[in-house]
Design goal:
The two termini are about 50 Å apart. The chain contains 14 helices and 25 strands. It is α/β, with parallel strands linked by helices. The chain folds into two domains: about 300 residues, Purple Acid Phosphatase, chain A, domain 2 (4-Layer Sandwich), CATH 3.60.21.10; about 190 residues, 5'-nucleotidase,  domain 2. The longest helix has 18 residues.
Length: about 500
């Protein structure tokens, strides 16, 4: 167990707990990513810890908050398209759920369906989506009564969301800056005159975020009236610290490895905050999975177990996830060949998506998920050689990043400065300067790779490029390849010479 304590006014917590003090407990989780099955059943361990903390503090004194990336990230979550996670939130009676960026990965229609299933409070003040002729929004905040105090909880998701997701199932999605949305909603919150203001946000505190992905530091500076921020997204274990002028920040890591506990002590007469302390409870420290929640999730976990063993095809040899995409990485070459086979595109721009090594022999749905743990759609575009040169030079500039994509089906020579000097198609032919070549991508790359590929993002939006969502995902592309060519034997080729 790790702990950190911050005191606002009183010199010691003991002084705060003299007659006339009330204690609010905020339990928080984030980035659970559907980890409810297998050996890493962090969500089920969290469930037991929540029950114990509620029993100790008294449920009427406790707020339970999840800060998102809840519905995607495990085989169970993928197979149930997020439903297992929604059932988990319901089983534990979470007070607040704030959707994260990955909770949109199955598309806005599926998110809408999950919101229809969920009976709890969903707070998300900076995102909306349109289905048909109707625009849907979530409440930005809500007032709770806990520990004889009024607590305003504001919910915000990742303002950078549109730089990660793309595709026909994301049409109508609109996301605003969390800071700007907070500025709009705070007058309403102030009118309610709460004793405590809490921001639950799917963003993290980052000391220096040059892409502007995480706004938490700026939010704490701009809005010092926010007493507590519980964050997420960055997967960091942060027991608690003061940020800005007076705000307390905590974040509970990822995958249910920790649960966060924040204690807020208020003077019973003035309703002023006297003390804040917080800690992270380690779920690996003797916390067994909660049997009642496991039973509630049993139908979805059982279905997942059956699906996991379903055969997809066969490999003649092992495919290891090492090396550099476009040069020596067998996994990225395999993914590229799968996309090329499924789309008939002769050129593919893609990297690896995990460190998982595919075994020789039978390949199952579990193997497929371990290799591709994301819900990436497959897209094609028609690019000229000059446009391809810009795209590949930009990729070369990101060659040390995990988002880097190699190329398949196009032999290229790069200078030491990263400029494309020469290109030839797989058959050795040099394409004409105005020729439009079909190229396949995944949706994360098409979205701009989290802001890292601005040139690619701009080029693909040109009308002549005819960017098209093909309506299936990367795992389905692999299924098609293995269905048609099992036992599949990977033939490697070096495409990039630099």
């Amino acid at each position: 167990m790790s702990a950190s304590t911050f005191r606002l006014l009183s010199p010691t917590l003991a002084a705060c707990l003299l007659a006339g003090a009330a204690e609010l407990t905020i339990l928080h989780t984030t980035d659970l990513h559907g980890h409810a099955d297998g050996a890493d059943a962090g969500m089920l361990r969290v469930a037991g810890a929540v029950q114990r903390e509620r029993d100790a503090a008294g449920k009427r004194n406790v707020l339970l908050i999840d800060c998102g990336d809840t519905c995607q990230g495990s085989l169970a979550a993928a197979h149930t398209r997020g439903e297992v996670s929604i059932r988990f939130l319901e089983a534990l009676e979470y007070d607040v759920w704030v959707p994260g960026n990955h909770d949109f990965d199955f598309g806005t229609q599926r998110l809408h369906e999950l919101l229809g299933i969920y009976r709890g409070n969903v707070l998300c003040g900076n995102a909306s989506y349109t289905l048909g002729d109707r625009t849907h929004t979530c409440k930005p905040w809500r007032l709770f009564r806990r520990a004889s105090a009024t607590v305003a909880v504001i919910g915000m998701t990742a303002g950078y969301l549109e730089n990660w997701v793309w595709g026909d199932n994301m049409r109508g999605l609109s996301v605003a800056s969390a800071a700007d949305a907070i500025e709009r909603v705070l007058p309403e919150v102030h009118d309610a005159d709460p004793d405590v203001i809490v921001l639950a946000i799917h963003q993290g505190w980052v000391h220096d975020d040059d892409r502007g992905v995480n706004e938490v530091a700026d939010i704490a500076d701009r809005f010092p009236e926010i007493d507590v921020i519980v964050g997420g997204h960055t997967h960091r274990d942060m027991p608690g610290m003061r940020i800005g002028e007076r705000t307390w920040y905590a974040q509970a890591g990822k995958h249910g490895r920790y649960m966060g506990v924040i204690r807020v002590v208020l003077d019973d007469k003035t309703r002023k905050i006297e003390d804040v302390s917080s800690r992270l409870v380690d779920m690996g420290d003797g916390h067994a999975p909660d049997p009642s929640v496991a039973e509630a999730l049993a139908p979805w976990l059982s279905s997942t177990k059956d699906f996991a063993d379903k055969p997809v095809g066969e490999l003649a040899t092992q495919i290891k996830s090492r090396g550099t995409p476009g040069r020596t990485c067998r996994t990225s070459e395999f993914l590229c060949q799968a996309l090329s086979h499924a789309t008939a595109a002769p050129v593919v721009v893609h990297g690896r998506l995990s460190r998982y090594d595919l075994p020789a022999g039978k390949i199952t749905e579990r193997d497929l998920f371990e290799l591709v743990p994301f819900e990436n759609a497959v897209a094609t575009a028609l690019l000229t050689p000059p446009e391809l040169a810009e795209v590949l030079e930009e990729q070369h500039s990101q060659r040390d990043s995990y988002v880097y994509c190699g190329v398949y089906g196009l032999e290229i020579v790069l200078t030491q400065e990263g400029r494309l000097e020469r290109m030839a198609l797989a058959d050795g032919r040099t394409p004409e300067v105005d020729e439009r070549i079909p190229v396949a991508f995944n949706s994360y790359t098409v979205a701009g790779g989290g802001g890292r590929f601005p040139r690619l993002h701009e080029i693909l939006r040109r009308p002549d490029c005819k960017l098209t969502d093909l309506g299936f995902d990367t795992r389905e592309a692999i299924r098609r390849l293995l269905r048609d060519q099992s036992p599949f034997r990977l033939e490697m080729r070096r495409w990039i010479d630099d």
